[in-house]
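Bug report

Summary: structure tokens for DNA polymerase domain-containing protein differ between web form and batch submission.
Environment: batch mode, default settings.
Steps: 1) Submit the sequence below via batch. 2) Compare with the web form result.

Sequence submitted:
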Amino acid sequence: MEKQRTIVRLGEHELAISHPDKPIWPEAGITKLMYVQILAELSPYLLPYTMGRYLTTIRYPEGIHGVSFYQKNCPEPIPDYVRTAQDGKIRYVVLDSVQTLLWMGSLYSLEYHVSSDEIANPLPNTWMLDIDPSLEVEPRLMEATDLVGQLLNSLGLSAVPKTSGATGVQVVMPIERGPSFDELRRFGKFVSEYLVARHPGLFTVERLKKDRGDLIYLDYLQHYAGKTLPAPYSPRARSGATVSTPLSWDEVRRNVIPADFHLLNIRERLRDRGDLLISAPRQSLAPVISSLPATI
């Protein structure tokens, strides 16, 4: 019996989508073909954050409730339009085209995590702080995010919050190249420890989850060469088909819920509001870092 499949045309290339009606996010009613079609519409927003970086995906061949596995090495066979980059023994996919994105989607890649470091430049162009709740449902998440934003504003800096698509938020600041990852860590350590000192009932920098209690972990260590975080507009393999979504600070203060941003409404949001991160100005962190106490 011939397997059911749908052919998607990608310019001069064709992509065969097997099992197009397979439920991937059953609760959201999203099938494999629907997912690939949504990825095509998301591609202008997702690709700017994945190109030029090392890609790690999480694949779910039977949908979100089935077996999953992380994949760093490029799957085989590799179509001729897919670019790769070698780092040590790993041959990574470079997610820099619609064709490559849809190919990955056809292989049940449901999450796209990218390296903090770029393939071609050792100096970072972004600072990021990962706000990681210890609780699966954390009603103080947006309050915590707003406090991070207020501290940055007090330093003359601005950033863009984005949901992780899971339980947390990342605060993202495009920066002018100059500081190293180690110097950015110093700044993240200062921000995090200051907030812990000011709000000890809300924040922690305790890395071990078992020692955090119900406190919200400020993870300034995750943004570093070789480490990954979900790309803006990456879907997540959760029942609500949530998407990592940049927010406005007004939305943060209105206490929005990360689960409200998902594959079924993200396209309408982008049509109405555009990408809130892409237009954020690059700022110089070098003066702030140079003024930090030597003990930080």
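Above is the batch result. After comparison, the two runs are identical; trailing whitespace caused the diff. The chain has two domains: 5-118, 126-290. Residues 126-290 form a domain with the Alpha-Beta Plaits fold (CATH 3.30.70.3300).
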